[in-house]
Amino acid sequence: MSLETWWSAVRPDTRDWLVAHNGEPLPMHVVEDITRVDGPVDPEASWVDVDEDGVLRLTDAAVDWVEAVANGETPPAP
User: Fold this and answer.
1) Alpha helices by DSSP H, 2-54
2) Where would a tag sit more exposed on the chain, N or C end, judged by fewer CB atoms within 10 A?
3) Angstrom distance (rounded) from CA 77 to CA 58
4) Are residues 28 and 68 in contact, defined by beta-carbon separation less than 8 angstroms?
């Protein structure tokens, strides 16, 4: 599932965290909420960036998407 699809289905506190901490490693509670909505995180998904230590982050495009949404814009899909 794409970021723009699961975004509206995750809990508001998850969206709030993603906006406030955009670009930071995803903590377990955020990953768990995304997994609740979307199933196991696919490391090949367009919004997923996994660093060399296996830490999940949003891709640069996904970070830009979240920033645009936070600014009240309608961004293109990451």
Assistant:
1) 3-6, 12-20, 28-38
2) N
3) 13
4) no
Token output for 33: 């909420």
Structural tokens at position 8: 């509206």
Q: In the prediction, which pLDDT does 51 show? A: 87
Residue 62: CA count within 13 A, CB half-sphere? 23
Structure tokens at 40: 């196991």
What is the pTM for the complete model shown? Answer: 0.90
Can you give the residue ranges of every domain in the chain?
3-70
Q: Looking at residues 38-55, what average pLDDT do you find?
A: 91
**Mean pLDDT confidence for 6-33:** 96
